Amino acid sequence: GVRQGGLVKPRQRFRAAPRWFARPPAPKPYRGDDRAAIEGVHFVTSDADLQRLVEESRRQGTKLFVEFGAAWCDHCKSMVPKMARLGRQHPRHTFAVADIFHVPQTSKTVVYTPTFWIYSHGVKVDQMVGSDKKNLDDKVWLQLQD
Protein backbone atom coordinates (compact mmCIF):
# COMPACT_ATOMS: atom_id res chain seq x y z
CA GLY A 1 0.00 0.00 0.00
CA VAL A 2 0.95 3.68 -0.06
CA ARG A 3 1.98 5.36 3.22
CA GLN A 4 0.00 8.51 3.87
CA GLY A 5 0.32 10.32 7.22
CA GLY A 6 1.17 7.22 9.23
CA LEU A 7 -1.65 5.13 7.70
CA VAL A 8 -1.25 2.65 4.92
CA LYS A 9 -3.79 3.42 2.22
CA PRO A 10 -4.70 0.32 0.21
CA ARG A 11 -4.28 0.47 -3.54
CA GLN A 12 -7.40 0.73 -5.63
CA ARG A 13 -8.54 -2.84 -6.12
CA PHE A 14 -10.88 -2.35 -9.09
CA ARG A 15 -10.76 0.15 -11.91
CA ALA A 16 -13.89 1.92 -13.05
CA ALA A 17 -15.47 0.36 -16.14
CA PRO A 18 -14.71 2.21 -19.37
CA ARG A 19 -17.47 4.44 -20.74
CA TRP A 20 -18.03 2.19 -23.75
CA PHE A 21 -18.81 -0.77 -21.47
CA ALA A 22 -22.50 -1.66 -21.85
CA ARG A 23 -24.74 -1.62 -18.81
CA PRO A 24 -26.72 -4.81 -18.23
CA PRO A 25 -30.30 -4.57 -19.47
CA ALA A 26 -32.85 -3.40 -16.92
CA PRO A 27 -34.69 -6.32 -15.29
CA LYS A 28 -38.08 -7.15 -16.73
CA PRO A 29 -41.03 -6.50 -14.45
CA TYR A 30 -42.50 -9.62 -12.86
CA ARG A 31 -45.82 -9.12 -14.64
CA GLY A 32 -44.14 -9.04 -18.04
CA ASP A 33 -44.76 -6.63 -20.88
CA ASP A 34 -46.49 -8.99 -23.26
CA ARG A 35 -50.17 -9.06 -22.26
CA ALA A 36 -50.92 -12.04 -24.54
CA ALA A 37 -48.21 -14.10 -22.83
CA ILE A 38 -49.79 -13.57 -19.40
CA GLU A 39 -53.48 -13.88 -20.25
CA GLY A 40 -54.87 -16.81 -18.26
CA VAL A 41 -52.99 -16.14 -15.02
CA HIS A 42 -54.16 -14.12 -12.01
CA PHE A 43 -51.62 -11.81 -10.37
CA VAL A 44 -52.14 -11.87 -6.61
CA THR A 45 -51.99 -8.42 -5.01
CA SER A 46 -52.22 -9.25 -1.28
CA ASP A 47 -52.68 -11.97 1.33
CA ALA A 48 -56.43 -11.20 1.32
CA ASP A 49 -56.55 -11.63 -2.48
CA LEU A 50 -54.86 -15.04 -2.20
CA GLN A 51 -57.21 -16.10 0.60
CA ARG A 52 -60.13 -15.09 -1.64
CA LEU A 53 -58.78 -17.38 -4.40
CA VAL A 54 -58.36 -20.27 -1.93
CA GLU A 55 -61.93 -19.73 -0.67
CA GLU A 56 -63.19 -19.61 -4.27
CA SER A 57 -61.40 -22.92 -4.94
CA ARG A 58 -63.10 -24.45 -1.90
CA ARG A 59 -66.55 -23.14 -2.82
CA GLN A 60 -66.37 -24.17 -6.49
CA GLY A 61 -64.55 -27.46 -5.91
CA THR A 62 -61.69 -26.53 -8.26
CA LYS A 63 -57.91 -26.59 -8.17
CA LEU A 64 -55.72 -23.55 -7.51
CA PHE A 65 -52.11 -23.47 -8.69
CA VAL A 66 -50.02 -20.67 -7.14
CA GLU A 67 -46.48 -19.72 -8.09
CA PHE A 68 -44.59 -17.85 -5.37
CA GLY A 69 -41.75 -15.82 -6.82
CA ALA A 70 -40.02 -12.45 -6.76
CA ALA A 71 -39.51 -9.62 -9.23
CA TRP A 72 -35.72 -10.05 -9.14
CA CYS A 73 -35.90 -13.82 -9.78
CA ASP A 74 -35.35 -14.59 -13.47
CA HIS A 75 -36.39 -18.24 -13.01
CA CYS A 76 -39.70 -17.07 -11.50
CA LYS A 77 -40.33 -14.67 -14.35
CA SER A 78 -39.60 -17.39 -16.90
CA MET A 79 -42.41 -19.52 -15.42
CA VAL A 80 -45.13 -16.84 -15.77
CA PRO A 81 -45.81 -17.54 -19.50
CA LYS A 82 -45.97 -21.27 -18.69
CA MET A 83 -48.52 -20.63 -15.91
CA ALA A 84 -50.53 -18.45 -18.32
CA ARG A 85 -50.47 -21.19 -20.98
CA LEU A 86 -51.66 -23.75 -18.43
CA GLY A 87 -54.37 -21.32 -17.31
CA ARG A 88 -55.64 -21.01 -20.88
CA GLN A 89 -55.54 -24.82 -21.35
CA HIS A 90 -57.47 -25.45 -18.11
CA PRO A 91 -59.90 -22.53 -17.75
CA ARG A 92 -62.02 -24.28 -15.07
CA HIS A 93 -59.10 -24.09 -12.62
CA THR A 94 -57.20 -21.05 -11.38
CA PHE A 95 -53.52 -20.34 -12.06
CA ALA A 96 -52.04 -17.51 -10.01
CA VAL A 97 -48.68 -15.80 -9.57
CA ALA A 98 -47.83 -14.22 -6.22
CA ASP A 99 -44.85 -12.00 -5.47
CA ILE A 100 -43.62 -13.09 -2.02
CA PHE A 101 -43.32 -9.44 -0.99
CA HIS A 102 -47.02 -8.87 -1.75
CA VAL A 103 -48.15 -11.88 0.31
CA PRO A 104 -45.83 -11.84 3.35
CA GLN A 105 -48.12 -13.78 5.71
CA THR A 106 -48.94 -16.59 3.31
CA SER A 107 -45.42 -16.91 1.90
CA LYS A 108 -43.49 -16.89 5.20
CA THR A 109 -42.80 -20.63 4.84
CA VAL A 110 -41.60 -20.28 1.23
CA VAL A 111 -37.82 -20.83 1.28
CA TYR A 112 -36.90 -21.01 -2.41
CA THR A 113 -38.32 -19.24 -5.43
CA PRO A 114 -40.11 -20.25 -7.49
CA THR A 115 -42.25 -22.45 -5.27
CA PHE A 116 -45.59 -23.77 -6.49
CA TRP A 117 -48.45 -24.60 -4.11
CA ILE A 118 -51.39 -26.63 -5.30
CA TYR A 119 -54.78 -26.34 -3.61
CA SER A 120 -57.69 -28.69 -4.13
CA HIS A 121 -61.09 -27.66 -2.81
CA GLY A 122 -59.40 -24.94 -0.73
CA VAL A 123 -56.82 -27.25 0.91
CA LYS A 124 -53.09 -27.28 0.09
CA VAL A 125 -52.40 -30.76 -1.25
CA ASP A 126 -49.02 -30.53 -2.97
CA GLN A 127 -46.05 -28.29 -3.68
CA MET A 128 -43.14 -28.09 -6.06
CA VAL A 129 -39.89 -26.13 -5.89
CA GLY A 130 -37.93 -25.04 -8.94
CA SER A 131 -38.38 -23.82 -12.47
CA ASP A 132 -38.57 -27.11 -14.34
CA LYS A 133 -41.41 -26.63 -16.83
CA LYS A 134 -41.77 -30.37 -17.49
CA ASN A 135 -42.14 -31.06 -13.75
CA LEU A 136 -44.83 -28.38 -13.56
CA ASP A 137 -46.65 -29.97 -16.52
CA ASP A 138 -46.47 -33.34 -14.79
CA LYS A 139 -47.77 -31.93 -11.47
CA VAL A 140 -50.68 -30.21 -13.19
CA TRP A 141 -51.51 -33.37 -15.17
CA LEU A 142 -51.36 -35.49 -12.00
CA GLN A 143 -53.55 -33.09 -10.01
CA LEU A 144 -56.19 -32.82 -12.74
CA GLN A 145 -56.70 -36.60 -12.99
CA ASP A 146 -59.51 -36.86 -10.44
From TrEMBL:
Gene3D superfamilies: Glutaredoxin
Thioredoxin domain residues: 50-135
Protein name, entry field: Thioredoxin domain-containing protein
Naturally occurring in which organism (per UniProt): Chloropicon laureae
